[in-house]
Design a protein that fits this description.
Rossmann fold; 15 strands; four-stranded parallel sheet; binds 6-O-phosphono-beta-D-fructofuranose; seven-stranded mixed sheet; 13 helices; alpha/beta; about 400 residues; globular
Length: about 400
């Protein structure tokens, strides 16, 4: 490969920029002449919104800053490539821009929707004898990509959630009043409960942990929930509950839509899920008279680079580097997957996997890891998640707040 381009797509993570670092550094090591960045993913690429990453990353200090920068440094998009038969001109335009800039390697950092773009473009290239190669680099706080053990971005979001919930539990327990405050924390993750399950990490010798965890994998029963809170209120001075934004009732309806009307959908047909903590807090307040509080962690959980997991940062760099290495060896239409060794000490091996088995597929939390009786996570989940949140990379501070690398 002589010239390559990297883009970011979908919801950002705390370490999505570390994958740019991995792509850039590996490309330089392999003597690749140019590394471009597409601004606002494939959507920006279609407008030829391209930058030369040397302008930022030739300076090692900026590499260090980029590892500590939240959000998508290049900008992101939620753009669904139309099927070839419906929009030949879109594909022609993409390849025209690639050819014009002499780009032969295309790297896309994203989740299952973004892998659809890699799939479509690599299929088109193969069918039309194009020389360009297309590689997927995994990222998502949702941790719902198939085949891979886990996804870069998840460990850092899980670390933020565990840390914040420990702090919330301390706060909620401050008042020695007779009746407890019920605090409901809403966590992202769409239709998979991986991230909400990470609330289970907020438990150790100094912290009692959350009182219940509700995942989208298990139908949510409001009456049972109210009864559970009523019982807890007779036993405890503080109640903290973790709920996924995507919890649904037995009929498959989102709890966050109760009384709020239908939610808007994005290009991939996903509803913007938010508000279930508030809905549940209002129901509890009116049915029990208890004081309630709803906390929606929202974008904080995917942008908290100040408390990112070092393991996650290193893995995000590695998946970027492995994608470039693979593409340089002629691979295309694949995504980097992480395989955990079955040894005592945590170790990850990196492989490439056919994008067709990954694009648009959602991986859920295994049922056997969920204790539905007590609404808690079982030990195998804790064993799975604990290594992913280990280690810290201290931010670079100026005047008391962390500094970031920003596009000019
Ligand atoms: O896909 C990642 C994610 O953070 C989901 O957890 C969440 O539902 C969604 O993005 C929110 O998307 P947006 O920021 O576009 O509303």
């Amino acid at each position: 490969m002589k010239r390559i381009i990297v883009g970011q797509s979908g919801g950002p993570t705390a370490v999505i920029n570390s994958s740019i670092v991995g792509v850039y550094q590996k490309a330089k090591e392999l003597g690749i002449e140019k590394v471009y960045g597409m601004v606002y993913g494939i959507e920006g690429f279609l407008d030829e919104n391209i930058i030369d990453l040397d302008d930022y990353l030739a300076d090692d200090n900026n590499i260090e800053l980029l590892k500590r920068t939240p959000s998508a440094f290049l900008g992101s998009c939620r753009y669904k490539l139309p099927p070839f038969a419906e929009a030949k001109e879109v594909y022609k335009k993409i390849f025209k821009i690639l050819e014009k800039n002499d780009i032969d390697g295309f790297f896309y950092i994203g989740g299952n929707d973004s892998m659809d773009t890699v799939k479509m473009l690599s299929d088109y290239a193969k069918e039309n004898n194009k020389k360009q190669v297309f590689m997927g680099i995994p990222k998502t706080i949702d941790n719902d990509l198939s085949i891979t053990d886990h996804c870069p971005g998840y460990g850092s979001a899980a670390k933020y959630i565990a840390t914040s919930i420990k702090e919330i539990i301390r706060d909620n327990a401050s008042f020695g009043v007779k009746k407890p405050t019920v605090c409901i924390v809403e966590i992202m993750g769409r239709h998979a409960g991986w991230l909400t399950a990470a609330a289970a990490l907020a438990k150790d010798d100094t912290c009692e942990g959350v009182d219940a965890i509700y995942l989208p994998e298990i139908p949510f029963d409001i009456d049972k929930f109210v009864k559970k809170i009523e019982k807890l209120a007779t036993e405890k001075k503080s109640i903290v509950i973790a709920v996924s934004e995507g919890i649904v009732n037995k009929d498959g309806n989102f709890i966050c839509e109760i009384g709020a009307g239908e939610k808007k959908v994005d290009a991939f047909g996903h509803k913007q899920l938010s508000g279930c903590a508030k809905t549940l807090a209002d129901i509890i307040a009116s049915k029990t008279g208890l004081k309630t509080r709803a906390i929606e962690l929202s974008t904080l959980q995917r942008s908290a680079t100040h408390i990112a997991s070092l393991t996650d940062i290193e893995e995000a760099i590695n998946v970027g580097a492995v994608a470039v290495e693979g593409a340089n060896n002629g691979k295309t239409g694949m995504m980097v997957v992480m395989e955990r060794e079955k040894t005592k000490n945590y170790k990850i091996n990196y492989q490439l996997y056919d994008i067709h088995s990954i694009a648009n597929v959602e991986r859920k939390v295994p049922r056997e890891w969920i204790c539905t009786k007590h609404n808690k996570m079982k030990d195998p989940f804790l064993k799975y998640v604990t290594p992913l949140i280990k280690g810290e990379l201290i931010p670079i501070y100026k005047d008391g707040t962390p500094v970031h690398l920003v596009r000019k």
